[in-house]
Predict the structure.
Amino acid sequence: MNVHDILQNPDEHVRFAAYLDKLGHVGDPDEVDLVSRVLTDPDQTMAQSAVLRHLDRRAASLCLGPAYEEWAQTMSQATIDRPFLVQRLREWSLFRAITLSLPWQPDDLLASSNWLQLKTAAGTNTEAVEILAEAGPTKRIRNTARTSPNHRNES
C-alpha cells in the first residue's frame, strides 16, 4: 500500500496505523519524502502524531551516535512548518547534548517541555538532574530528579 492509497481510507485510525507501519520501514533515502507526504494528510493532528512517534523512535536510536546531527537537520527542514515537531527535534538535540556532556545551557533545559525535563530528570547528567531537582517547574519533575540515582543528597 502506498501513501496515496492510505490517504483514500476515511478512517483516521487505519491511516495512522498504516503511516506508522510505513514510517517504521522506510529507508534513509526515502524518509524525508515519506514524512513530507504523511504531513499532507487532511487530519493534521493525526498526521503530526504519526510523524512525532516516528521522530521519537528515530531520535532515540540515533541521538548518541554521529548520524544524529545530519538526520536532525534534515528532519527539521522536512517539518519546518510544524512548530511542535521542530520543537521536539530541538529538544532531542538538547537531550543529546546533556547526555553526551556537550555544551548546553541550563536556561534552555528549564524553558523546555515537561517531556524533556522528565526524560532528563531520570537521566545520567548530574548537573542537569540537580538543576531539575531544585528548579523543575512541576512537583513531578522535581521528585523524579530527586529520586534519580544521579541526584546528590546534601543532607
Observations:
- Residues 44-62 form the longest helix (19 residues).
- The CA atoms of residues 22 and 125 lie 35 Å apart.
- The chain is about 70% helix and 0% strand.
- The chain has a mean pLDDT of 93.
